[in-house]
Specification:
- The protein is of the alpha+beta class.
- The chain contains 13 helices and 16 strands.
- It folds into 3 domains: 43 residues, no CATH class; 180 residues, C8orf32 fold (Roll), CATH 3.10.620; 152 residues, no CATH class.
- The strands form 5 sheets. Strands 14-15-13-12-16 form a 5-stranded antiparallel sheet. It has a 4-stranded antiparallel sheet with strand order 5-6-8-7.
- Helix 2 runs antiparallel to helix 4.
């Protein structure tokens, strides 16, 4: 950029100089132009030197930080009590979804009963096929219009902020020997290079002195190109913070043996040098990797340092562990679990046929993406409500409403999801698990939070109505902003009326809330 600006300026000087030389009797035009060129070259050299001096000063600053942090790691580590990971819901969800009773009016009006099929619990072994007799309920008036209570604190939508690419030290040595490493990241071929000297660094013991020495040795090698390659790979593959952590971990596991002491140490080092608030801990002569996270992770043990939770991403038996208190000075970024863009992974197509009454659709997604989601730790529901399905998934369900629009389409989608196989996460997985939309049709059953997440997305995407989630702790539902709709239970949020729509309340019309939750306050989830 500097050379381009200098070239433009030189052309201007040449044009002006030609005119100026005609009036300058003591110098020829060529002499005057030569002097100006020399001045510009000197200016460019001065600017380059200034930039180099700034880079060198930055490198010296990083080296001072590395040395100070190495000395800090030698100090006796503190003992911290690790807390067992909390559950996302302390209260059990409904084992069997309730069925809405037909509304009786005065004077009575003849109505067709809502057909409610029995819930099938047959597991799907191969390609999943959901047999769903869909009933589109008529829009019925309600005897009462009930405003539902909400909790005063509203969970705001997630805003994913990528960490700032760290300014790395200058590579003093060019042409250093490198080692190639090839591995598959969720089915996607990855090739990286690292300084061959890294292979020679041994991680001996877990004492403070050994850890300090290993940090110093790692800081001496040319690690900057590796961190840059990792960031470029992250950007190319649209990885979020968790995806980037997985990239570093898989690199270390493939280069230095999975779950080895050296793999954990290198993962911690690279995360720290990438700007993440990461800690190395130790328990029973084994290293533990810990990372500060913006949102809550469920069923993951953690320690608290200065009111910041550091989640333990290594295998851990709970109890006490030892670590240091202060992070590396420039490691300030807390991991953000939001997924602003779908990871770009090699395609491994998987299909599921979903029958909707007499109609059916073939849902498609990427099996490699499902593997990525399978390793995702359970986190706040906002992450799932704010995630977007893959393009492949979106395209395959483009005709899910079969030409219906507006309120008719909304009622159709509501009834469709209500009649899907229901099963709690404990029954299906043996643990709590929130599903991303791409996962929904590739499991035999779903529970209330999965249905609410998908229904909120479908309402926004295909009916173009705003949606919010309603988290009752032991149940999750939705409410939809239906233009000019005045019937049924509702919530006012930001001066907009959202009508209750419960995709788990079998046979319930738009506006009907499970009786159990009519007077229970809910946290609002804003997609």
């Amino acid at each position: 950029m500097i050379k381009q600006n200098l070239l433009l300026l030189l052309l201007c000087i040449t044009a002006i100089g030609t005119t100026f030389a005609q009036d300058n009797k003591s110098k020829s035009a060529q002499e005057w132009q030569k002097e100006q060129l020399n001045e510009m070259q000197k200016l460019e050299a001065d600017q380059n030197k200034e930039m180099q001096d700034m880079t060198d000063e930055r490198t010296k600053y990083i080296q001072r930080m590395d040395a100070e942090f190495s000395n800090y790691l030698k100090e006796r580590w503190q003992e911290f009590h690790a807390f067992k990971g909390v559950k996302s819901s302390e209260k059990p969800k409904p084992v069997i979804p309730p069925v809405a009773k037909p509304v009786v009016f005065t004077p009575p009006v003849a109505q067709s009963p809502v057909v409610t099929p029995p819930v099938s619990k047959s597991p799907v072994v191969t390609s999943p096929v959901a047999k769903v007799p869909v009933v589109t309920p008529p829009v019925r008036p309600f005897e009462q219009v009930t405003p539902l209570p909400t909790k005063p604190l509203v969970n705001l939508p997630f805003v994913a902020v990528a960490p700032v690419v760290p300014v790395l030290p200058t590579i003093k040595k060019s042409g250093f020997p490198v080692q190639d490493i090839n591995f598959a990241y969720y089915g996607t071929p990855i090739k990286l290079q690292y300084d061959l000297q890294l292979d020679a660094i041994n991680i001996i013991g877990v004492g403070e002195d050994e850890i300090s020495n290993a940090w110093s040795e790692l800081c001496k090698i040319n690690y900057a190109p590796l961190v840059k390659d990792l960031f470029e790979t992250r950007n190319r593959m649209n990885l979020n913070d968790w995806g980037y952590y997985q990239l570093i971990q898989q690199f270390s596991d493939n280069a230095f043996h999975k779950d080895s002491q050296k793999s954990k140490f290198v993962t911690w080092f690279l995360l720290t040098k990438s700007g993440f608030k990461a800690k190395l801990g130790k328990e029973n002569n084994q290293f533990l990797l810990m990372v500060a996270v913006k949102s809550d992770l469920y069923a993951v043990s953690f320690i608290t340092v200065d009111d910041v939770k550091y989640y333990i991403l290594s295998n851990y038996s709970n109890g006490s562990l030892f670590t240091y208190k202060n992070d590396f000075p420039e490691a300030t970024h807390m991991m953000d679990m939001a997924i602003p863009t779908i990871p770009t992974l090699a395609l491994n197509l998987i299909k599921a046929t979903v029958k909707m009454g007499e109609d059916s659709i073939v849902v498609k997604t990427n099996k490699n993406l499902l593997a990525f989601y399978n390793d995702y730790p359970q986190c706040d529901l906002e992450v799932y409500f704010n995630s977007q399905p893959s393009k492949l998934f979106q395209e395959s369900i483009a005709n899910i409403t079969h030409g219906r629009t507006g309120e008719e389409a909304l009622a159709y989608l509501l009834s469709f999801i209500q009649h899907l196989n229901y099963q709690t996460d404990t029954e299906q997985f043996g643990k709590e698990k929130f599903m991303f939309p791409d996962e929904f049709f590739f499991f035999p059953a779903s529970d209330c939070d999965d249905r609410a997440t998908l229904f909120a997305y479908l309402s926004k995407e295909f009916v173009h109505f705003k949606a919010i989630g309603l988290n009752y702790t032991e149940h999750v539902s939705t409410a939809i902003a239906i233009p000019e709709w005045k019937s049924g239970d509702y919530i006012i949020y930001k001066n907009i009326r959202y009508t209750s729509c419960d995709p788990t309340y079998v046979g319930a019309d738009v506006g009907m809330t499970m009786p159990k939750f009519k007077k229970v306050s809910a946290n609002i989830i804003v997609p």
